[in-house]
Amino acid sequence: MSWGFLRDLLSGANKYSTGIGRIWVAVVFLFRLLLYILAAEDIWGDEHDEFECNIQQPGCENVCFDHFFPISHTRLWALQLIVVSTPSLLVVFHVAYRENREKHHGQKLYLRPGKIDGSLLCTYLISLILKAGLEVVFLLLFYRLHNGFAVPRLVKCDIRPCPDTVDCYIAKATEKMIFLCFLVATSCLCIVLNLSELSYLICKHSKKRYLKRYTQKHE
Amino acid sequence: MDWGALHTVLGGVNKHSTSIGKIWLTVLFIFRIMILVVAAEKVWGDEQDDFVCNTLQPGCKNVCYDHFFPISHIRLWALQLIFVSTPALLVAMHVAYRRHEKKRQFRKGDQKCEYKDIEEIRKQRFHIEGSLWWTYTSSIFFRLVFEAVFMYAFYFMYDGFRMPRLMKCNAWPCPNTVDCFVSRPTEKTVFTIFMIAVSSICILLNVAELCYLLTKFFLRRSKKAANKKQHPNHENKEETKQNEMNELISDSCQNTVIGFSS
């Protein structure tokens, strides 16, 4: 019971997505989920053990680590992946509701329950807006909590019980920064994909409605 | 901890749940079990190793850790999730019993039995009415009680939901009052608040589901009583249609999430 569950969830939602939506799912799987599973444990696994301060005062390292890393990068990354995938459930629920309605009435009410039109289009657009919004929120959180996306090699700490300003060294700083840059880049790519899909759907359906109205007028 | 087994059991019950029940199950799996497995267990992974006390006295650190953390947050959450999921087993057992009875009727060749074969009985979805209503409502009630009890236990054991950076300890064999520092207190506070917030959402969902079931029950009773008064001999066709519409609205989202279907 782990990331496989999220993978099944997204595969279910993928059936009702547009082409751009499927690219989004592929980006999330290959460039984010897989990368997270690959990198998170190996690079961030020993972040606390290898965080070293130039002092023997007991408790100083703990307190300084807690000050500079209120939430670990990996936890925020994992939360981002889970939260950003959840809006797809709205579409899955809506399609299931349509299929159930057809079953109860015993007749075909929709051309295809999974076709993105009518109220399902609204649900789909809302899920896209939520996905993009949540990505931005998490990027902002990353930026605010860790003072930017850079991971310094050395941080200076003077919180009690550290007796004075103390030098603390972060393990694998460059490697962490590289993977963080990758995380930010893929998040931005996902935001662009979501916004493109949003524009594409709005344009497509506006055009359809305009043509319908035009042909009705001329009839 | 094999959460997959729990997933299998609850997935089977999901088929017979109301829409609110299905949302509750989704919240449980995505925002509680998954977060616990993927994130929270790693945050608390080094809790004893990195619990540091400002003393060289052997045994002092162990005793202080045990004093401040009688049971780890992770274990308490895992227990809470197990207890909260267990009432669904009552519903699963009731459904299994009904299926068993129907299969027995079918094998006896009962004229009243409306099924064509055993497979149909196995796949059938039971509506929440009659004795199944009582079982289902009791299971929601127990879920509520367990959630509330565990939230209170959390608050009582850890004096609130905040994890302090520094704890002062003077339990024997510590020679004096000693400063002890907890590892990752801010991250732990964030996850504690997150889990408490999601527990509260689950409590609200359970209360909403309970209210919905009670409303449905009383509406049905009052309609039946009104019908008996007006037309004592025959069933109202309008009422049947209305009931079907109500069931359609209320029992939507049949096959909600891949992996939840039995």
Automatic annotation (TrEMBL), chain A:
Subcellular location field: Cell membrane
- Main localization, broad class: membrane
Taxonomic lineage is: Eukaryota, Metazoa, Chordata, Craniata, Vertebrata
Span of the secretion signal? none
Q: Where are the transmembrane segments?
A: 21-39, 77-97, 118-143, 177-203
Q: Which PANTHER family match?
A: CONNEXIN, GAP JUNCTION BETA-7 PROTEIN
* MF terms in GO: gap junction channel activity
Query: Which residues fall in a coiled-coil region?
Result: none
Q: Which residues form the Connexin N-terminal domain?
A: 42-75
Which terms are listed as keywords in the entry?
Cell membrane, Membrane, Transmembrane, Transmembrane helix
Q: Where do the Connexin cysteine-rich domain residues begin and end?
A: 134-201
Official protein name in the record: CXB7 protein
The membrane-topology field of this record reads: Multi-pass membrane protein
Q: Name one GO cellular component term.
A: connexin complex
Q: Which GO terms describe its biological process?
A: cell-cell signaling
UniProt-listed InterPro entries: Connexin, Connexin_CCC, Connexin_N, Connexin_N_sf
SMART domains per the UniProt record, alphabetical? CNX, Connexin_CCC
UniProtKB/TrEMBL annotation, chain B:
Which chain regions cross the lipid bilayer? 23-40, 77-97, 132-158, 191-214
Any one Gene Ontology molecular-function term assigned to this protein's record? gap junction channel activity
What does the UniProt entry say about where the protein is found?
A: Cell junction, Gap junction; Cell membrane
Q: Name one GO cellular component term.
A: connexin complex
Q: Which SMART domains match?
A: CNX (SM00037), Connexin_CCC (SM01089)
Q: Which UniProt keywords apply?
A: Cell junction, Cell membrane, Gap junction, Hearing, Membrane, Transmembrane, Transmembrane helix
Q: Which residues form the Connexin cysteine-rich domain?
A: 146-213
Connexin N-terminal domain ranges (all copies): 42-75
Q: Which domain of life is it from?
A: Eukaryota
Membrane topology designation:
Multi-pass membrane protein
A Gene Ontology annotation in the biological process aspect, one of them, is:
cell-cell signaling
Its assembly, as annotated, is:
A connexon is composed of a hexamer of connexins.
Family membership, please give it.
Belongs to the connexin family.
What the protein does?
One gap junction consists of a cluster of closely packed pairs of transmembrane channels, the connexons, through which materials of low MW diffuse from one cell to a neighboring cell.
Under what name is this protein listed?
Answer: Gap junction protein
Protein source organism: Tricholaema leucomelas
